[in-house]
Structure formats: structure tokens, C-alpha cells
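Lab channel / #folding
Pinned by the channel admin:
"Please post every new chain as: sequence first, then the C-alpha cells as a reply. Keep commentary short and put observations after the output so the thread stays searchable."

First post following the new format, from NK:
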Amino acid sequence: MIREYRNKMLSLASILCIIGSVIVFLSMAMAKDFSSSYFWFWTAFLLLGGGVLQASLSRRTRSSISSVFFAVFATIGFAVVLFYDYKVTSLINSPLLFVFPVLVFFLSGCRIGVALNGLMLSFMLGLLIANKGSLELFGGNSRFLVSWIIVVAGSFGVEYGRRVHEKRIVDTSFTDNLTGLINRNGFRARLNLAVLRKKPFTLVKMDLDFFHRINLILGSQKADELLVEVSNMLKRQNGFYDLARNFDDEFVWVFEGKADELEKKINSLQDQLMELANEMSVPVALTASFGYSVFGEDAKDARVLWGQAELALKKAKKEGRKKACRFLRKDAEIEKKNGELISLLEKAIERKDLQVHFQPKIDLAKKRITGMESLVRWTHEVRGFISPGEFVPLAEQSGMIHPMSELVTEKSIEFLGELLHSGYTDMTVSINISPAQILRGDLSDKLLILCAKHRVSPERVFLEITEGLLVQEGANHAMIALRDAGFKLSLDDFGTGYSSLSYLHKFHFDELKVDKAFTDGILRSDRERKIFDTVLELSHDLNYATVVEGVEKSEQVQYIQKFGISEMQGWFFASAMSDTKFLDYLDKFEFDAAVAKV
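Reply from TO:
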């Protein structure tokens, strides 16, 4: 706000100075009095007006405008020096003889052609005035003046055209075509300049939450319109400088206020996003995640500052979105540890150090083990056991989920083949499949090759899919291809996602797996039991085969059986185990002993 007010005042001052110079010059011309005092007064007005205008221009326009604008000022000034003295010889003794050529040269962007043409025009104006005492444009000697005016006009025209062309190229390279904001390249240049000023500021990154859903629901055109409206909303905020669209649905800017002011701004933006969603009839909540880092406190380098804000933004998304996080030193330490873990994971995959364990699925109605779920495990030689919750997300982020999943898938189908050909003909295997695997498009072919290799029917393979896949573009086509190949589809962690009800009618599943979070709630409170009841009743009404996960206590088993659900999985029966231990468990399994604790 202060900067905008200052620029307006400077622009007004420059206009007044230039108007003043014109008035003084006309007064001198009408009175035919070009005394030194009047002349210097006029010159001061002219140069002061130009200087103030130069100060008021933004960095982006200053260099392009000043070269032409000030060259004209210098040209006029040179002519008036000659006009004032009436004699060419007296110009030699004037110190302005050396000042104006320098001004013309440098203020025209060091363009020699423009400077020389302007200089020659100045001399020609002066010579004509000195010889004639007045400016006779249509007199005999004035043809030289007209010629020089044409030359100079042409020179300025070429220069202007060149600068317009350069500006168009720069605008294309540094401007986002959709929103009109500067783009990532433009912002990085502005950020470097902000760092050079050595004044404190905050680098803020904003990313719209789950925008891919909105894009899928509304279509790309409406989603683009929404992005334009979001950018317009950000433009209206006070204190946001160098606002840019980083990419897709992410925006970035410099904030020069205090930390508490930024927090208020972010809270206000969340409210404005919700209002915008209502105005544009967006069918899902429109929220944003923010990450920011403070120059001077967190970092003193543009590259480091950028990385810190990015880390803070990732943290905000991991913590549930619709959050704002400032970069903290411990975040960098966590990122470093994650990087080390990713490196170790890569080596473990190459050496096939990851193990595949299997947890049995018990059917209480049939009184036997009807299937198993394959689960990846990692025991490092130095670090010991590493939780899947720690390394699986890192594998997804780094792209190593593909080789890791291929390892798990092949081992699972291979072991299933061994069991089927050992007499356990009713056995099935459930394999967790990541969205990245399915969306690659070649999963069906790879699975069929493995099934043929190990003599396994595809219908004995259940592919467990999380709800996050359902909103991905292309998910329906990929899932149809898997079902057509004969594989069974299981919706994993049913009820924990954001779209279970709205997508159950669109995608057909062979099985629903109720998440452990609901199973735990059975023994905690009446409210959580009612939620669990609702989930099971919905599954029953939709006529889906249902498996309840995370069963750990006999009271849970008894409660679940009241709904007619017979398939369960959890520590109450057995934990995940290696293939050799699982085979031994199958051989020794006795149903009555397994459920005797119920």
C-alpha cells in the first residue's frame, strides 16, 4: 500500500515538473527572453521531472521507457543551449556541451545510433536558430532540419520496434498465459532481486488442495476459469508483491508484513476460497495449503529460501491440508533422513532385501482360512525393523513404488501357486496395489504373465485399491481392464476416504475391507459403534463381500458376527508371517482352537 501511494505521488510530481518546464519555455519564447536565469529554471524543471518520472517507474518498465524518453529530453536540452546563446562559438565554452551527449548516450540505453542522431538534430536546431534568429521550417535552410527530423524519427521508430519485440519475447518467457501473472522463471528473477535488497520478507507458497478432483469434476475449461478467479483474488490482497503462478494450481509471492499479519491473511484467504467456490458452484470444498520461509531468519539465499518454503508446503499437505506451515530447522533434518532412507531403500530393492509376509484371512462361517494378504516388510542390517508406514510413502514419492510393488506382486503370486498346488485349492491372495501402478496401464498384462508362469487363475488374485485412486483420471478404464482379465477388485480401508459413497455406484468391487480404525471404535464409545454399524449395514445393503480388518479382541469378533459378517483378519487370529511360517500355520491350523477365545 505504501509503495503504491509513493509511486502515485512520484508520477504526479513528474507530470507537474514537465508541465512547468513547458510553461517556462513558452513564456521565454513569447517574451523572446532567453536569459540565463530563465534558461536554468527551465532546465531544472525538465531534468527534475524526468528524474522523478524515472524513480516512479517500476523496474520492469523503467529501462525500456527511459532510453527513448530521456534521449528526447537530452535532444531538446541541447537545442535550447544553442537557442539560448544565439552563437555556435559560445557553445564550445559551455560545460553542457559535454553533459548532454553523455546523457543522450546513457539514457538511451547506450545505443550509439540513437545518441548520435539526437546529437546531430540538436546541433542542426541550434545552427538554424543562431543563423536565422527563429525557426523557419519551410525556409531555404530548413530542408536540412526536416531531413534530420526524418532520420531521427526513423531511428527512434526502429529502436521502439526493437524494444517492443524484446518486451514481447520477455513477456512470453516470464508471464503465465492463463492468469497474466508472472511465471516461475519471472518470479525466480524477482526473488533474486529481493534478496539483493537485504530487507526482511517472507516467501509464501500456496497450493490448492485436491485440485485434480476439481479438474476431473468440472473439466479443464471450468477449472482454468477457477484458477483465473483465484489469481484475481490474490491480486486484490494488500501486501502481496511479485505474485506469480508457479505451476498448475500453485501460487507464490513475497510478503513484507509481520508473521501475525500473514497468519490473518492466510485465514482470510481460506474464507475467500470457500466463498469463491460457492459463487462458481464448485461441488467440493476449495481450500489451500501454505508453506513459507522468512528471509534473514531462515535463509539468506534465494535458492535455499525457495527449498525451505517448498518443504514447509509439503509438511502442510502431509498434516491434512488446509494448513499453513512455516519452515523449521527440524523439517530440514527430517528431509535429510528421508533422503538417506530412500537411498537405503533403493539398494534394498536392488538386492531384494525386502521380505513379503502373509496374514491369514479367516472365514468363521466356513471354519477355515480362505485367503491371505501379502504385506511388505523391511529389516535393515543396521537399523533393524523399519515400519512400512515409514518407507512405503517414501517409495511412492520417489517413484520406487514400481520396482518394490513388482517384487511384492511376483512373490505373492509365486507363493499362492505353491499353496494351490500343495492342496490348498481354496486359497486366494490379496495384494496392495498403488494408484501409480494401476495408472501406468500395463499392470493387467504383467499380472497375467505372472499368473501364467506360476499356474494361478487370475480370479484367485484380489487387488486391494485405496479410495484415493477413484478420483484419478483414467482409473475407471484401468480397473475395467483388470476385471476383464479376471482379477478381483477389493476396496481397501473402506470408509476412511473422502468419496466412498459417491463412487461406489460408479466402480464395481468384488470385496470391501473395513478399516481397522472402525474396528477399534467398537470398544471405545457408542458413537463410534454406530459409525461402525452404518459402514457394515451399507456394505450389506450393497451386497458386497465384506472383510473386517484389525480384529484383535474376542469382543470385536462377537460384535461383528451379529451383522452376519464372517470373514475377518487381525492379530486375534494371527499376525503377518513369512511364507515358511505361514505354510506351517496352515498345516497346523485348527479352527476350534483359533476361535476358542471368543
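NK: Residues 142-174 form the longest helix (33 residues).
TO: also worth noting, The chain has three domains: 38-173, 184-327, 353-368+375-387+399-596.
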